[in-house]
Structure formats: C-alpha cells, structure tokens
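Q: Entry one of two.
A:
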Amino acid sequence: MDADEFFKRVSTRSGIHGRDQVIAATASVLQALRARISHDTGDNMAAQLPNEIRELWKSPPTGHPGVEEVEFERMDLDEFLDRIRTTCGLAGRNEAAEVARAVFTTIQEQITPGAADHVASELPEDIREFWEESAPPQRPIESPASRRPRASGVQLRLDRPALEPTRKGPPEGFYTSDEIGPSVATVCRSDAQLRDEILELLQASDEVDASNIEVEVHAGKVTLRGTVTSPYQREAAKRIAKEALGTIEVINYIRLRPSQ
C-alpha cells in the first residue's frame, strides 16, 4: 500500500478525520514505539513501510526538533498510551488505545510476519499483547510469544470491528500461503511480486549490499545468486528473503567476493 492508503486505513479504524490529524496521530504512535524497541528492529520494520511513513519514523520526537536519536525507554502499556494521549491531545486512555491499535494493525498489514515477530519479541508483555491483539485477521501472529499467558490485569478492548480482507482463490500461476501449512495468511502472489518484494527488502536493508545479488522465484521457492563481502551479509540476505510473505524455501547460492 502507499502512504495515502495507509493514512486512510488509520483514519477508518481510529475515527480521526483530516489528513494532518491522522499524520500527527500516526507519528505519535511511531515515536512511542521507536522509544521502546532497538534501532535495528525498528529500522527493519520501517524499511518495509511506505516512504512517507518511513520519514515519520525517522523524524525527531514531538517537541524536540534537534534530536535525531531516540533513546530506549522502559514503559508499560499505560505509560505508552499516556504518551500517545498527551502528544495527540486526546481526551483519555481509550481514545489513545484506539489510535495505537489503528496504527499497529495497519503497520502489520504492510510488514512481513518475521518483522512483526521481531517487534513483538522486544516489547514488554502488556505492550506485546496489545501489538499481537492488533494483528489484522488475515495475519495472525504465531510466534512463541503470542502463546504466553497474558499478564494479569491487562484489559484490551476488542469491540472495534477490523477491516475485512478480501478472500478469493488464487488465479492460475499464483500460489497461496495455505500451500505451505498453517501460515500467517491467505495471499495471492505471483512469483514476480514475491521477487520484487525481496529485492526491495534487500535494497532497503542496512545489513546487506544488494548491488550484486540476483533473485529468482519459482512457485514460491527463492534462489539467491551473486556475491557479497562477508558471511554475515550472505546469511542476512537469506533471512530477509525467508521473511517475505509467500516464501516457501530459500536456496542460497550467494558467494563471497575476494577481498581486494
């Protein structure tokens, strides 16, 4: 999805109207989340979002225009929502929860399941539960963290209807994640779509120099070829390709470039 569609979905789910107000609300949630997860995990997530949303992720915190790096902060769900309430000028906690849920759901519609799991793994239990409860119905998270018992006293509002996905059978030449077991979603994707997403993820990653990497996809089976400068980059490329929604298998033929 592009940024306009992202903001439209946040507006529909949160009940906030007006583009400026929706952008401010989205930025508030992103800034609060950015203060709670590592830079690497956050940047990997942001690399999969539309450009305008990615810029909001990188923008200075509200009220601190000269600050570039956001320091890690410990906060529970109440503090997390209170920060959103304050920066958005919302009336109360319930309104802040609706905004946070709207942004969380829309983010998880855009990023890979692996990226969503990485985010969840770094959150405290009550915020993690909120993140996972916000997962869209077509992308339930099946991480070990999602099966842990909920912390006592955590109450989540689940009465707001989610946007329903369009469900239909895949056209000829396409495949669905149902074919690879109890996966995260039913999706219709061509090999070309999967290849383009993997290339985009590789090029956006700070872990890999993708300038000499080629990607081939056949029926969801991904083959990587080319050269990189280190074993770490070789394994990172494989991991990124594996996290793309629809990947069944990754065959890694990437070689190490001789040092000059």
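Q: Entry two of two.
A:
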Amino acid sequence: MNLRLWLIKLLVNKIKSIQKVAVIVLQFNNSESTKACLASILESLIRPDLIIVVDNASNPEHLGNLKSFISDKPEIELIESSGNSGYSGGNNLGIKRALSQGVEAVFILNNDVLVAPEMFSQLLKTLNANPQLGIVGPVSQEGPQKTFGGQVNWFKSELKHLTKPSASTNQIVYIPGSAMLIRREVFERVGLLDERFFLYFEDADFSFRAQRAGFLIGIDPNTGIQHFVSASTGRLGENKLLYYHYRNALLFQAKNMPLGLSLLIPLWSIWQFSKQIIKSILQPKKSQTARAIRQGIIDFYLGRFGQIKKTFL
C-alpha cells in the first residue's frame, strides 16, 4: 500500500461523525454586511452550535454598530482583536476559540456573504457522508456568475475560480475562503492558517496543506451562498491589492509549487520586476502601481510578510 493510501485509511479510522459545529465571521469595518450575514445564519434550518464574530480592529462606529446588533443575541460571541491581523490572523483567533470549546468542525465565512437556509445542514451531511473529506464549500453566487471552487495557474498573481461544476474533485485544487467547512482533524494535522499572507492566497495554501496531509476537498453543488465580492478588501485601493497579490503569489508558489517548477520562481520574479520598471518609464501615470508590484516582489525576498507597512501604497 502506498503512503498516501495508508495515510487516508488511518485518517478514516480516526474520524468520527460531526455533531458540534462553530461558524466564524470576520469583520473589518463594513458592519452592515456583517449584520446581514449574521441574520442569514440565524435563519438557518439548523444553526451552528457556536457563532463567533471576530472584529479585526474596526473603526469605533462599525464596532459599535455590531455590538448593538448582537446585544440581544446571547448565542453570538464577539472577540475583539487588538489590531488588524488580516484574514488569517483574525480567523485564527476564532478557530482557536472554537477548537477550545470542543467543536468537531469549523465553518469560516466572509462577512460579505449570505447563506442559504439549508446550507449548514447540507454541508454537514456531505462531510459526514465521506470521512476522507476534510474541507467542503458551497457553490458561490458572485453577481451573475456561479463559482465551484478554485484552480491554480502557476506563475500568475491571481487565483482562478471554476465557473462550471467539476466532474472530478481532482480538478478542484482549493476551496475559496469566503465559505469553507473544515474538520477539526485538519487543523490538528496541518495547523492554522498561515498568518504571513495577511490577505489573499491563504485559503489556497490551506487547501494544499490539507490535501498533502491526505484529506480530500470538494464543493457541494446542492447548496450555495450569495457572495458580494470584495466588499471590504475593495476599499484598500488598487496599489495595496496588487502588492498583496504579487508578494503572496510568490510565497504561495514557494510553499506549494512542484520542485521542478519552483526552480523557475526567481526567473519569473526578475521578469515581473523588469516589466514594472518598463511600465514606469513608458506609462508614468501607472508608476505607483508598478512601484507597488515591485515592492511586493522585494518584500517576499526580504521576508517581509503580514500587513504592509509602506505608507506610499
């Protein structure tokens, strides 16, 4: 028996049916979206056992708005982060709290999402039906388009969403972090989200780590969410978004790319860096954008991760 099959068999023997579930909603400002998200959770046919909201150091007005909304809802627990630790750091606060309460699965949910009433019960049913399945997500309605998980194209600064149902789970290489239900055993085996990313690529990285540990991942086509894409991150501005995309694409590829391809990462970096120099010369109006991308590449090689500190972006 090869090592992967042995590992899967070992996991299946240890995994039990999931009974207790926590949902984590991360907020950084945008409190009206958070309230709508929580309202949709509370209308679920089967509610999660724990509902945890992590506030990532929002402005006082947004934090106050959230506190007012949950003041008469004792089933919702609020964790206030001392600073904005990004998607990974904020969710990790909620994950650690949920695991300490003995939950058997954690559902990570963006605050710019509305869930279908049957979503939790359907995803639990799917997860319990297949002990090898470590992470499962719903279909995501994003404007006029539905997405069914994600794929990775190497040497690209962005990830790709599948817009058609996959005939094979092998075609789905990551579950988007906007909505993913994760077994406790996945965290116990691979750890928490990598906080170096801060924003973007951490969901794909987590899916890769889970699969290397022997778990399967998948999208349940029988339930869905409404995702109002980038309701919070869109406010960062183009330059910061590009900085995170390029820096984190390099980090993700360095961690997960096949060895033969990973030897080409420095060449791709030089090519991208050179393109941005040329862009600054030929298109002066885009010089700040080009500078942000170059800084992202530089910071990867200098090991500068987490939240960006450069004010010029």
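A: Comment on entry two: The first strand starts at residue 21 and ends at 27. Residues 7-14 have pLDDT under 50 and may be disordered.
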